[in-house]
Structure formats: structure tokens, C-alpha cells
Specification:
Helices cover about 75% and strands about 5% of the residues. With about 170 residues, the chain is mainly alpha-helical. The protein has a two-stranded antiparallel ribbon. A hairpin with a 2-residue loop joins strand 1 and strand 2.
Length: about 170
């Protein structure tokens, strides 16, 4: 897709998508001690496919930190965003090298978020911030289901956006 993009163009896309994602932060699904945020997953998909794993992971980290500073996110923004972004980016690289359409790497985002990210949140982040009991009290299955639904919605939105961007010739 954008393998030959200049650093300036990559930074511009990263900042634009990060700003849009942060602006959409008030639209979230509160569940237990977390806030499910489909727009993060949409951004992970778009940046993972267009910019690759490092840029997408950096954007997810940046967005998570800014959301926490603004009080719009929780510490769980990090494991809920970064693994999905990196996994999509890695998948896009593999698909591109195999001569396949990298947009389909979008469907790795739920694995990164609902599996890897959830496990990181549960076993590393929750105990670090003293929220493990809150996770257990809220019930792990409802939290996981909302995370899975959130990443599903965001993945589909990101995949649709990538298809539109490709058809329009922007990527």
C-alpha cells in the first residue's frame, strides 16, 4: 500500500488518525473498570495496514496515553489497543509480501485485542493497578464480550474505510 510513503506523509496520517480517534473518545462502552472503544480498533486497522506495525503500535500507545491524560480512557487503553495494532501491521506485511491484499490483515485485530490484549490486561495491568478484584466482580465474561464486540465493530469500520480508500485511489 504505502510502502514508499515519506516520513512526513506517515506522520501526517498518524497525527490525523490519532486526533480523530481521540476526538471520538467520548463515544465508548463502559464495562466494569474498562471502557471499550471501537474507534481505537478502526484506527489500528487503518494504520496497521497503511503504515505497518511500528507506526500503528506507536499511534495506539499515543492515543491510549492521551485518552488517559484527558480522563477519557483507562490504563486498559494500552493492552486494549497496542497488541491489535501491531498484529494487524505484521499481518499486512506478510500478506503484502505474499502478493495478497493487505486489507484482510484487519481481521487479526480481534485476535490482538480480544485475546492477547485481554490476557495482558487481566494478568499484568489489572494487578498492577489494583483492579484485579474489580475485573472479577464485574465478571470476566461480560468484560471480554464487550471487548470482543468493540473490536468487531472497529475492525469492520476500519476494513470498510480501507476498501473505500483503495477504491478512491488514496492508498
Amino acid at each position: 500500500m504505502a510502502v514508499e510513503w515519506s516520513t512526513e506523509r506517515k506522520v501526517a496520517l498518524l497525527v490525523t488518525m490519532s486526533g480523530l480517534t481521540i476526538a471520538l473518545s467520548p463515544i465508548h462502552i463502559p464495562i466494569g473498570p474498562t471502557k471499550a472503544f471501537p474507534w481505537q480498533h478502526m484506527t489500528n486497522v487503518i494504520l496497521g495496514v497503511t503504515l505497518g506495525p511500528l507506526w500503528a503500535g506507536a499511534a495506539a500507545l499515543l492515543i491510549g496515553l492521551v485518552r488517559m491524560m484527558l480522563g477519557l480512557g483507562t490504563i486498559f487503553s494500552i493492552p486494549g489497543g497496542v497488541p491489535g495494532a501491531i498484529l494487524v501491521g505484521l499481518g499486512a506485511v506478510v500478506l503484502r509480501r505474499a502478493g495478497r491484499s493487505p486489507e484482510y490483515a484487519a481481521f487479526l485485530e480481534p485476535v490482538g485485542t480480544a485475546v492477547i490484549g485481554f490476557l495482558l490486561a487481566l494478568y499484568i495491568f489489572a494487578p498492577l493497578v489494583g483492579k484485579y478484584e474489580a475485573w472479577l466482580a464485574a465478571g470476566l465474561l461480560p468484560i471480554w464480550l464487550v471487548w470482543a464486540a468493540s473490536t468487531g465493530v472497529g475492525t469492520l469500520a476500519g476494513f470498510g474505510a480501507l476498501r473505500l480508500l483503495r477504491r478512491s485511489g488514496l492508498i
